[in-house]
Amino acid sequence: MRLQEEISAAQRAKCIWLKDGDRCTKFFYDVIRTRQHRNSIPRLLNAEGRLVGDPMEIQEEAVRFYTDLYQQTDYSSTFPALVTKRLVSRHGNSLLLAPVRMEVEDIVMKANPNKAPGPDGFSSGFFKRHWGVLKVPVLAAVQEFFVEGRLLKEINHTFLTLVPKKEGATSLADFRPIVCCNFLYKIITHLMCRRMEGIMQGLVYQNQASFIKGRSIAEHSLLAHEIAREFSKPGRMKACVKLDLRKAYDTVNRDFLCHLMLAMGFDERWVARVRECICSPTFSVLIQGTPHGYFRSNRGLRQGDPLSPYLFTLVMEYFTCMMDTAVHSRRIIPLFRLVSPVVSHLIYADDLLVLLQPSMRGMRALSDIMEEFRRLSGLQLNKKKSRVYFSSRCTQQEERAFALGVDRGELPVKYLEVPLMVNYAKKQDCHSLVDFAQRSGRLASCGSIIWRTD
């Protein structure tokens, strides 16, 4: 009984780093209470802007908000042929091979047993402990998906866990919906990810570094820093545009994604299986740990689905194609035209940094590209959070920012959590990095003390 209590508490507390430490359910329950306090939703702004605290009203508002969020709007049904990189046919055929027992077993054995269970109540730890009994039916279910391309609706039911982006969040726009999927579904999508991993590098340009094997966030950060240093040098006018996408994962046009994958050379059968994974889920919203509502969606990718980062990367690749077309037609002039490859923009997940010479024509062209990209992909520019940064020699800065449709900002600014500075870094510019390092050091110190406690 004591062991069962500790296992239950550990899973709820998510204390992976203490999994082999002293048995102490008081510690686990303290962490549970801390997490519940941090993630609880005592008050919420409803659609009329009124603050409500009644649990029933909070539940109804959350279900209504996410039901509306995942509904398709005015997207285009026709897509221009701008894709230049295509999948080699032999790679496409390898995606469709039915997985063997060793592949499935490797996914299960490497899974973290302390992750929260899905809507069916079975965690990865349950599958690992009882793999001797479960391996035959699980392998059969996984292989059937790769052969038939169909998922039972029960397998793809999803809980939405609302994680606040800031302390005291009261608007649902300030919560991040992280999905909790069934482990059987995760086995399938992890296998799909492993197969896509080997082909992504050949499909995605160097402008993107996220989720691509062999590419690093550090490379993007250093390149952006070097470009920012160019702003202090004499010569032509320069501009750097930091673009923020509103609800990026949640608003992806799935029809556009599937059309794009076909244009990239993915086999129709593979695209059909991807469509089955992203279009068939049903949702319930977790409020104070209890699921509420039951609804479907017709847009968006789920944050927490192993497949979503790869698919989102493909969507952002279309933005690269649009930018390259604008550069080749000279609608947009990049900062460094004589460098190969030409660097007109950098993408890391949904962080976009556009680098261009800020002519009025170029700023309007970038605005048109973002609007066309929204119409096709569903990804909308958040103008309130986006900023344009000009070099000191740039004239008519307000007019140029107005042509783009975003506000003007001042360097330094954070990009990938590192400040972009025109001049050499000063002590105050690195306070955020120092604070982060100090917090990490304190956590490591606390962890070592706990491990030594008798």
TrEMBL record:
Reverse transcriptase domain boundaries = 144-408
Q: Which domain of life is it from?
A: Eukaryota
Q: Which PANTHER family would you find in this protein's record? A: NON-LTR RETROLELEMENT REVERSE TRANSCRIPTASE-LIKE PROTEIN-RELATED (PTHR46890), RNA-DIRECTED DNA POLYMERASE (PTHR46890:SF48)
Q: What is this protein called?
A: Reverse transcriptase domain-containing protein
Question: Which lineage ranks, top first, belong to the organism behind this chain?
Answer: Eukaryota, Viridiplantae, Streptophyta, Embryophyta, Tracheophyta
